[in-house]
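Reading a protein record of the kind used here takes only a little practice. The record below shows the convention in full:
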Amino acid sequence: MRYIEPTRVKVLMMMFYATGIVGIVIGLAVAPPSMTVMITFMALINVGLGAFFTFIFLTQVQKAPDKRKKKRKSD
């Protein structure tokens, strides 16, 4: 899998977790009875995606610097 910058992964994590939590609250408290299950299920999918990006954030290895771009000292 490609290396993703940690700040980008953190933003995705926060976005999915926040959307999932708000969706669960709306699905269980505000939504009409016919849509409760669907909204809550979609919110749980968002929480699952947040967990996936948390896993990526915690397990990815930092990218090694490219040796071709490094300047050599000529003494």
Summary: The two ends are 40 Å apart (CA to CA). The mean pLDDT is 90. Helices lie at 6-30, 36-59.
